[in-house]
């Protein structure tokens, strides 16, 4: 009986949280238009932006799934058993070389207007992307993207000391770590609207390979994130690196001209088939001293947070495109 009451209470909280999130996102979209014509609304707009991280995180994803039995996700989240699911294995022999437009990055090199808040949510370590010093979030277009996509969140997937943990495979190989930069199509008002449309989200995926030749690498933004992991070992802990960063610093010297693209889904519940994936072909290094910092994170039960990657999904009849710089 107590368990049933707890479940009813959580369902109620999820419903009200979803409504609150939707209201906040709609208000932000409306006031953003007002402030362009009425500067007096700028202060109110900034206050709404402060609420966005809470709206983004107020959902069902953080509580209602785990990686022990991802095959069972579809019981609570039907999309997880549907079509066009991610991640997939990408092989250079099964892709279509094509002259896609390059990705164009805007505001990626502008410093954020506040410190990042790195958060251990029990499933991953992530942070919500704030606005830059010019009042807007970084955004991207190009590749398979016909619209502008605003950066919203960065998170990671990893394995353990015994197994590698990237979600996508490249040419038959699973790598040690995968970073996702999640973007939201600006033509949709809320995250829910975006998830319900096939072009609602865009994710840039960066894979990492552990290197043992040196103690660290000069990757300023990534080094700050990796150092922060020592401060968020406990579930629901947060830490703010004491430096203003740029989103572009997380890409280091990555060749962003060379990538694979396909239509897929979120790799965690609700597994919405609304993602235009762009997986970079180049693999970045991560120090053998930095990778274990992910392994010391703990989940909501106080146990090690390991192997937080979804099993490979069927490619089905989907096309995977490869954009090369020389095409």
Q: How many β-strand runs? A: 16
Main beta sheet strand tally, sense and closure: 13 strands, mixed
Secondary-structure element order, N to C: HHHEEEEEEEEEEHEHEEEEHE
Give the amount of beta strand, in percent: 15-25%
List low-pLDDT spans: 1-22, 52-63
Q: Indicate the CATH architecture of the largest domain.
A: Roll
Count of DSSP-assigned helices: 6
The first-level CATH class name of the largest domain: Alpha Beta
Q: What overall form do the CA principal axes indicate?
A: globular
**If you compute it from the alpha carbons, what radius of gyration comes out, rounded to the nearest whole angstrom?**
19 Å
CATH superfamily of the largest domain: Alpha carbonic anhydrase
Could you tell me how far the N terminus lies from the C terminus, measured between alpha carbons in angstroms? 63 Å
Pfam families: Carb_anhydrase
EC number: 4.2.1.1
Function: Reversible hydration of carbon dioxide.
Cofactor: Zn(2+)
Describe the fold and architecture.
The structure is a single chain. With 327 residues, this protein is an alpha+beta fold. It folds into two domains: 1-59; 68-323, Carbonic Anhydrase II (Roll), CATH 3.10.200.10. Helix content is 23%, strand content 24%. The chain contains six helices and 16 strands. It has helices spanning 2-37, 42-57, 73-76, 191-195, 220-228, 292-295; strands at residues 89-90, 96-97, 104-106, 118-120, 125-128, 139-142, 145-158, 169-170, 173-174, 177-185, 201-211, 238-239, 259-264, 275-280, 284-287, 321-323. The strands form two sheets. Strands 2, 3, 4, 5, 6, 7, 10, 11, 12, 13, 14, 15 and 16 form a 13-stranded mixed sheet that branches. Strands 1-8-9 form a three-stranded mixed sheet, with no helix packed on it. Helix 1 (2-37) packs antiparallel against helix 2. The longest helix has 36 residues, at 2-37. It starts with a helix and ends with a strand.
């Amino acid at each position: 009986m107590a368990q049933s009451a707890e479940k009813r209470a959580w369902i109620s909280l999820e419903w009200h949280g979803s409504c609150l999130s939707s209201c906040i996102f709609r208000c932000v979209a409306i006031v953003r238009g007002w402030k362009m014509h009425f500067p007096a609304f700028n202060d109110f707009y900034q206050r709404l932006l402060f609420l966005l991280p809470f709206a983004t995180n107020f959902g069902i994803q953080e509580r209602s799934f785990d990686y022990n039995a991802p095959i069972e996700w579809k019981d609570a989240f039907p999309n997880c058993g549907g079509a066009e699911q991610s991640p997939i294995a990408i092989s250079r022999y099964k892709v279509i070389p094509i002259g896609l437009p390059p990705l164009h990055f805007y505001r990626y090199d502008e410093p954020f207007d506040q410190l990042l808040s790195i958060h251990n949510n029990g499933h991953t370590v992530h942070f919500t992307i704030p606005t830059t010093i010019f009042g807007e979030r970084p955004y991207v277009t190009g590749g398979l993207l016909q619209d502008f996509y605003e950066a919203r969140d960065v998170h990671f997937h990893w394995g353990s000391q015994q197994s590698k943990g990237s979600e996508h495979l490249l040419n038959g190989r699973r790598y040690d770590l995968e970073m996702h930069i999640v973007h939201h199509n600006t033509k949709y008002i809320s995250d829910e609207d975006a998830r319900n449309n096939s072009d609602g989200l865009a994710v840039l995926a960066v894979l990492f390979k552990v290197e043992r030749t040196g103690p660290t690498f000069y990757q300023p933004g990534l080094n700050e994130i990796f150092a922060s992991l020592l401060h968020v070992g406990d579930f629901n802990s947060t830490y703010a690196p004491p430096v203003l960063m740029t989103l572009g610093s997380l890409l280091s010297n990555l060749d962003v001209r060379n990538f694979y693209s396909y239509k897929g889904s979120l790799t965690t519940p609700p597994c919405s088939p609304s993602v235009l994936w762009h997986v970079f072909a180049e693999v970045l290094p991560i120090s053998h001293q930095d990778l274990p910092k992910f392994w010391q994170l703990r989940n909501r039960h106080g146990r090690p947070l390991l192997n937080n990657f979804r099993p490979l999904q069927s490619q089905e009849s989907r096309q995977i495109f490869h954009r090369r710089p020389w095409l």
